[in-house]
Design a protein that fits this description.
Aspartate Aminotransferase, domain 2, 7-stranded mixed beta sheet, Aspartate Aminotransferase, domain 1, binds 4'-deoxy-4'-aminopyridoxal-5'-phosphate, 355 residues
Length: 355
């Protein structure tokens, strides 16, 4: 750290992204990426013509992509915000809507406390219940802006649409941000509620269910006034925060053919998740029933950090968090059926060595 850094930033603890290894080839189940490539229309859209057009700035309004998203999600263009990954939208939301503090779970997406610290926002931490489900009643009682990942990460557990509505209606004077990064793997989206509630902002991403984590594209749906607030921040920081290639890819991912492709691949992934859950349970693992593209797994006889290290030695990367409450678990992204078969086989061997 240089002596020039602002004092208020000197104690900031940054978010640690999952490892992107370059040393050797791993089975990579540590950052919840989609195991399949983007749809063929996406690949075709990022072509030589688009490359040549890089000479020009992209459309800062992203009008075409917004219009398509609006059509697909049954809202107006004025209800859609697009940005550089949903992290960008969460960042803007903490900046814009959390003057009165931010309420979020103790076990949830690790970026929320980082944003809160970055902007000097008071955090109201609402512990998950003993079964690791969200304490909906406590979110109904808070006086802070609510930020909820649904399904939650890293547990994979979701709350019902009725519970989301309960939280949103109990907090009419505060924004409720529902982070739906993982909703396309069996969760219930709250997008329909954005028509009824002016305080609800729903964020989604192309990173998890559309195989485009590398493109950095997220979007939010909400009341036009909330979207205008986010635009205010975007135009006060970086109006061109989405490049031409990503905008083109984002539109192509919404073609009829792409939507069919993604629906099929998402179903395949959910089937792999259920098979993996059953196979791991059969060999003695405890697996939390997940509605996301990952599972949260504990092997009763093996320490969480040790399992993580042993899998790494065997060429498989999964994610371990040191937080006391979940240190016995590993979060394992759902890969291809072959990758998951290898994972189960290696975990079985590790358990076997223990006996
Ligand atoms: N929300 C949650 C709950 C996540 O796990 C992630 C991925 N790390 C994100 C948001 C951010 O995703 P992205 O910026 O790639 O859209």
């Amino acid at each position: 750290m240089s002596r020039f850094l602002s004092k208020k930033l000197s104690s900031l603890e940054a978010y640690t992204p999952g490892e992107q290894p370059r040393d050797k080839k791993y089975i990579k189940l540590n950052t919840n990426e989609f195991p399949y490539p983007p749809a063929p229309d996406v690949v075709a859209a990022v072509n030589a013509d688009e490359m040549r057009a890089l000479r020009l700035y992209p459309d800062p309004t992203g009008a075409e992509l917004k219009a398509r998203l609006a059509e697909v999600y049954g809202v107006g263009s004025e209800n859609v915000f697009i940005s550089n990954g949903s992290d960008d939208i969460l960042n803007f939301s903490f900046m814009a809507f959390c003057e009165n503090g931010a309420a979020y779970a103790d076990i949830t997406y690790g970026f929320y406390p980082v944003f809160a610290e970055l902007y000097g926002i008071n955090s109201k931490i609402i512990p998950l219940k003993s079964d690791l489900t969200l304490d909906v009643d406590e979110f109904c009682r808070t006086d802070s802006t609510c930020v909820i990942a649904n399904p939650n990460a890293p547990t994979g557990l979701a709350i019902s649409l009725e519970d989301v509505e309960r939280i949103v209606s109990a907090n009419e004077n505060r924004v409720v941000v529902v982070d739906e990064a993982y909703v396309d793997f069996g969760g219930e989206s709250a997008v329909s509620l954005t028509k009824k509630y002016k305080n609800l902002l729903v964020c989604q991403t192309y990173s998890k269910s559309r195989g485009m984590a590398g493109a950095r594209l997220g979007f939010a749906i909400g009341d036009a006034a909330l979207i205008a607030d986010l635009e205010l921040i975007k135009y006060s920081t970086n109006p061109y925060n989405l490049d031409r290639l990503t905008l083109a890819a984002g539109v192509a991912a919404l073609s009829d053919g792409s939507r069919l492709y993604y629906a099929e691949k998402q179903s395949e992934l959910m089937a792999t998740r259920e098979r993996t859950t059953a196979a791991l349970t059969a060999i003695g693992a405890e697996v939390i029933p997940s509605l996301a593209n990952f599972i949260f797994v504990k092997i009763p006889s093996i320490d969480g950090a040790e399992l993580n290290a042993k899998l790494r030695e065997r060429g498989i990367l999964v994610r371990h968090f040191k937080t006391e409450r979940i240190k016995d678990y590993n979060r394992i992204s759902i890969g291809t059926p072959e990758e998951m078969a290898t994972l189960v086989c290696e975990i079985e061997k590790i358990i076997g060595e223990r006996k």
